[in-house]
Amino acid sequence: MYVSDVALDDFRSYRHALLHFEPGVTVLTGPNGQGKTNLVEAIAFVSTLSSHRVGTDSALVRAPRPGENVPAGAVVRLKVNKEGRERILELEIINGKANRAKINRTKVRPRELSAELKTVVFAPEDLSLVRAEPAVRRRFLDDYLGQSDIRLAQLKTEHEKVLKQRGALLKQLKKSGAGLSPANSSAAAATLQVWNEQLANLAAKLIIARKEFVTQLEPEAALAHQKIAPEGRDLSLRYQAKIDELIPAQTEADHELEGLTARLLQGMAQRAQEEMIRGVNLVGAHRDDLELYLDHLPVKGYASHGETWSVALSLRLGAYGVLGGNSEDIAQRPVLILDDVFAELDEKRRAALAQMILPAQQVLITAAVPQDLPECLNAHQIRVRRDEAAGSLILDATTSEGEAHE
Ligand SMILES: Nc1ncnc2c1ncn2[C@@H]1O[C@H](COP(=O)(O)OP(=O)(O)O)[C@@H](O)[C@H]1O
Ligand SMILES: [Mg+2]
């Protein structure tokens, strides 16, 4: 699949923008702050409904100049080509409201967009996949779950909602001191019970889906790592479910939906009082981690800067494989987006990465200067230049001389 056309309204720094892309490799170059990342972020956002740079959607809507009205929202329209069949995907990001989506002008639920466009984004922020707290790795897994199956996107949303509601209730119980006296806490436990069952069921489904994804991801990521890492150490992954430590599984069935749900409920019962005292959810999928190892040593805290990069890239390349990157059918392969990554890599990793991305039907790369790119990439070039004076519009360029303006 590939994106042939992009139209933006009030997205980030763009008032209006129109851009045409060819399949193959396209490089967006230009000095920093011109809007290169903003462009590729818009494309990725349509397919994942999440940005690699911010957690909230409001930063995606163009901030008005002094004296201007605040735009109602941002609109991203993409024309996506899959085996010659064209679809127009539209996403409207509205300040303070739920996003709205259309496919070929028909209203759909936003998460349906990812069935039409899959993307894998590489960015300097990926170092945090290795270094940062577990939440970053959970989000990495969940983003791809959502892209791989619309039912999982739905599961994710429901799980988040129930987790939030139960968390709000716990906060209330904390305030009222419910955990402090036995009489109060048994009444409170009854109130919690409804939420427990819902949360345990959703969390169990999510844990199972994540584990399955990690099982598929591991061989792909390990293979990518062999190709990309000159150090030649073996990468392995482990999904660490906290519930497995709290209430260890006794049989295989304890890992399946029913058994896992039961263990989560048991865990919640065990920690109910502590939850009420602290006012937070302590048992469930939202506590888990994806552990990364090189030759069985944890990557976190042990790996060098270069090794950390190799692992982060391998995770992305692995996800690309799981999402369809190895498919015989080129139209099934996700669009790859490499935002400013080549400048971060040494010569060897650059060359290895360049080789590995070539099978994609479309690769979009941003770079401050073309010199940062490996020579083997035979790319279309688009220069991105901010044009304050032009006010609205423009752009185009499938040739090396095209330019993008604000
Ligand atoms: N919501 C927004 N409204 C207006 N401008 C924005 C918004 N978000 C980011 N920008 C501007 O976009 C520019 C950064 O664009 P970016 O695509 O990151 O540049 P680069 O070409 O370096 O990748 C900055 O000048 C930033 O102030
Ligand atoms: Mg950038």
From TrEMBL:
GO annotations of cellular component type: cytoplasm
Principal localisation: cytoplasm
Subcellular location: Cytoplasm
Gene Ontology biological-process entries: DNA replication; DNA synthesis involved in DNA repair; double-strand break repair; SOS response
One Pfam family of this chain: SMC_N
Keyword set, alphabetical order: ATP-binding, Cytoplasm, DNA damage, DNA repair, DNA replication, DNA-binding, Nucleotide-binding, SOS response
Boundaries of every RecF/RecN/SMC N-terminal domain copy: 2-376
Positions annotated to bind ATP: 30-37
Taxonomic superkingdom: Bacteria
GO-annotated molecular function: ATP binding; single-stranded DNA binding
Record's signal peptide: none
Protein task: The RecF protein is involved in DNA metabolism; it is required for DNA replication and normal SOS inducibility. RecF binds preferentially to single-stranded, linear DNA. It also seems to bind ATP.
Family: Belongs to the RecF family.
Protein known as: DNA replication and repair protein RecF
Phylogenetic classification of the source organism: Bacteria, Bacillati, Actinomycetota, Actinomycetes, Actinomycetales
Encoding gene per record: recF
